[in-house]
Amino acid sequence: MRHWLLRPSLGAGLGLLAGAPWAQAGATVLAAGPADVMVDYQRFLAGRDPLQIQDFGGAHARRDVAEVVLLHQALHLGGWRQGLEFRDMPSGERLLREIGSGHVICSATSYWKDDIAGAEDRVSLSLPLVGNGEFEAGLYTVASNPRALAAKTLADVQKLSVLSNRNWVADWRTLERLGIADRQHVTNWELMPKMVAAGRADFLLAPFQASEDLSLQVAGVRLIPIPGLKIGMQGTRHFLISAKHPQGLDLKSRLDAGLQTLIQQGRVRKAYVQSGFFNPKVQQWRRL
């Protein structure tokens, strides 16, 4: 479930925090985030100052876009004043290598704690943005798949096929736990919606969206959740921070201080609710 993760590079020079009104002039350090998220982030801002954002809903709102805004606000509250320059990464493995080597100082969006297994000496975690069991995902399919849309129980879902990536530990483990035998490994997220649309699999996992019908648009494909069903994901999600970058420890300290304030203010939860991630529309749906 990584459509909020990593995409082919947009190229150098796309600012993340560089140019923010509070950033110091001079050298910047590199942060990493997904291309599609950053495009939607700029559309969501529409010229607004991210530090002034109070309403995380509206056009182009989504969980990962909200997290980029929260990163800005948390760093500002923590006293970080150096600019961060955005770089896109082609895969999660590449992201970990770049952060683990100290080339990139942090991620722009959150990741599962399990994603850094084996790299704990090189990659550290911020305070959790999403607590254990808080992450709920939809089973997203296409409107032309009546068999998937008719699923009402876990037994029904177990008869369906799903696309995921076995390197996404939390996702793959959840699908195994649910007893879904037909799990197809796909390394590229952008291929997955096209494969579902082509009938090569029935569904994929994705966070719930802020759209009126909870639909998700990816690469020209419209996906909708199987109504009435959701999956609870175990684990916590964090910003990733380089333990090898010379300023990594300072950024972590300031980011955690800012996040603590945002959490206490209720702004992190508010951002997730308004962006559709913690979605009241699915509150009564059956959790598999």
What does this structure look like?
The protein is of the alpha/beta class and 288 residues long. The protein folds into two domains: 24-131 and 235-283, Periplasmic binding protein-like II (D-Maltodextrin-Binding Protein, domain 2); 135-233, 3-Layer(aba) Sandwich (D-Maltodextrin-Binding Protein, domain 2), CATH 3.40.190.10. The protein has helices at 35-45, 63-78, 92-101, 146-149, 154-158, 169-177, 191-197, 248-265, 267-274; strands at 24-32, 82-87, 106-107, 111-112, 123-125, 135-141, 161-164, 182-185, 203-207, 216-218, 221-225, 229-233, 237-238, 240-242, 286-287. Strands 6, 7, 8, 9, 10, 11, 12 and 15 form an eight-stranded mixed beta sheet that branches. Strands 2-1-3 form a three-stranded parallel beta sheet, with no helix packed on it. β7, α6 (169-177) and β8 (182-185) form a beta-alpha-beta unit. It is globular. 47% of the residues are buried. Residues 2-16 have low confidence and may be disordered.
Feature tags:
about 290 residues; alpha/beta; D-Maltodextrin-Binding Protein, domain 2; 2 domains; eight-stranded mixed sheet; 9 helices; disordered N terminus
Helix content: 25-40%
Number of strands: 15
The radius of gyration is 18 Å
Secondary-structure content class: alpha/beta
In terms of DSSP E residues, the strand content is: 15-25%
Average pLDDT level:
88
CATH superfamily of the largest domain: Periplasmic binding protein-like II
Which overall shape is indicated by the principal axes computed on the Cα atoms? globular
The ordered H/E elements are: EHHEHEEEEHHEHEHEEEEEEHHE
Our count of helices gives: 9
Question: So what's the oligomer here?
Answer: single chain
